[in-house]
Amino acid sequence: MEFKEAKNKFVQTWGALGSQWGINKTMAQIHALLMVSNEAVSMEDIMEELQISRGNASMNLRALMDWGIVYKEYKAGERREFFTAEKDLDELAVKISRERSKREIKPALKVLKEVSSIEANSTEEEKHFVDQTTKLYDFVLKADNVLDKITEYKDNWLTQLLIKFMK
Amino acid sequence: MEFKEAKNKFVQTWGALGSQWGINKTMAQIHALLMVSNEAVSMEDIMEELQISRGNASMNLRALMDWGIVYKEYKAGERREFFTAEKDLDELAVKISRERSKREIKPALKVLKEVSSIEANSTEEEKHFVDQTTKLYDFVLKADNVLDKITEYKDNWLTQLLIKFMK
DNA sequence: ATAAACTTTCATTTTTTTTTGAAAGTTTAA
DNA sequence: TTAAACTTTCAAAAAAAAATGAAAGTTTAT
C-alpha cells in the first residue's frame, strides 16, 4: 500500500467510525485528515481532499473547534486561515470525555434524578420504576465521577489506569 | 410528576441519548421501556406504548437480542412472546463494552495496523503519517485491553475501579 | 473609505437512515 | 393437516440528517 492510499483508507475508516459514535462523517473525516497532516491545512485544501463544499467544511470545522480538538492557525503574511488538530492522544481523549460528559451525561443525570424522585406509593410497577431509575442514576453518576477522576491525571492516564489494573 | 409522565420522560430521554451514541432512537426506547418494566412485555404492548409499527418493533427487538441485552420469555399457556431487558447494570455495561469492542474497535485496529505499516521512505509528510497512526494504534489497543481487563471483573467493576482510583 | 480575499450562514436540495405495512414465514393446538 | 395466532422480512415511503452554494458578513491592506 502506498501513502496516498493509506491516508485515504485512514480518513474513510475514521469517518465511518465517527458515524457509529454519533459524530457526523465529514466532521470525523476532517479530524482524521488534520490528525495525520504534519502541517496546518487550509480550508481550500480540506475541501479539495474530501471533495466537500465550502459551507460543509466551514460548519464542521467550527464544530470541531467548539469541541476544542481543532485549532485555527495564522501564518505570517497569509490572509487564509489554517487548521490543525490536537495531536496528543491523551489530551484528545480527555477533551472528548469532558465534552461528552457536559453535553450528554450531565443532562441525562438531571432527568434520572427527576424521574426517580416521584412518589411511588401504590403499585409494584411504580416501585420497580423508582428502584431501577435510582440504580441507574447511581451507576451513571459513579461512572461520570470515575471518568472525571481518570482524566484529571491528563498525561498518560491510560497507562496509569493499565498499571493500576495490572496490580 | 406522576408515574406515567415520569416513565414517558425516561423513555424519551433514553431514546435521545441513544441517538447521540449511534444507537437508533426506537431501539433505545424499547430498551428503556423494558428496563423499567417489572414484568415481561409483549410486542403488542411495546407497539402500543411507543406508537410504532410491528415491523419496527420486530427489527429492533431482534437487534437488542443480538446485542445480548434483551431476552425472549415464554409464558405458560401463551402463544405470544414476551421480552425483558437485562436489568443488572454491571452486566449491561459489560455486554455493551464487549459488543462495541468486537464490532467497532477490533476492525478499526486492523485498519490502523495496515495503514501504519506502509513503507515511509521519502517525505516528512509520510513519516508523520506513520508516526501518528502508529501512536493511534498503540493507544486504541491499550484502551481496548483496559476495557477488557475491567469488564473481566464483571460484578461491581465500576466500584472496584472507583476504589482503585481513590487510593 | 473601499475593494479584494476570505469565512459564515441558512434556505434548499440531496443523501442517509428509519419506519411502515402487507406478504411470507413459522409455530402450535386441535 | 390445517387454520389460527403469531413473528419476520423487505420493498417502498417517510423522516431525519447532512451537504450544497450563493448571498451576506468580516477582515485586512492600501
TrEMBL record, chains A, B:
<protein>
    <recommendedName>
        <fullName>HTH-type transcriptional regulator</fullName>
    </recommendedName>
</protein>
<dbReference type="InterPro" id="IPR000835">
    <property type="entry name" value="HTH_MarR-typ"/>
</dbReference>
<dbReference type="Pfam" id="PF12802">
    <property type="entry name" value="MarR_2"/>
</dbReference>
<dbReference type="InterPro" id="IPR052362">
    <property type="entry name" value="HTH-GbsR_regulator"/>
</dbReference>
<keyword id="KW-0238">DNA-binding</keyword>
<comment type="similarity">
    <text>Belongs to the GbsR family.</text>
</comment>
<keyword id="KW-0804">Transcription</keyword>
<feature type="domain" description="HTH marR-type">
    <location>
        <begin position="26"/>
        <end position="80"/>
    </location>
</feature>
<dbReference type="InterPro" id="IPR026282">
    <property type="entry name" value="MJ1563"/>
</dbReference>
<dbReference type="InterPro" id="IPR011991">
    <property type="entry name" value="ArsR-like_HTH"/>
</dbReference>
<dbReference type="InterPro" id="IPR036388">
    <property type="entry name" value="WH-like_DNA-bd_sf"/>
</dbReference>
<keyword id="KW-0805">Transcription regulation</keyword>
<dbReference type="InterPro" id="IPR036390">
    <property type="entry name" value="WH_DNA-bd_sf"/>
</dbReference>
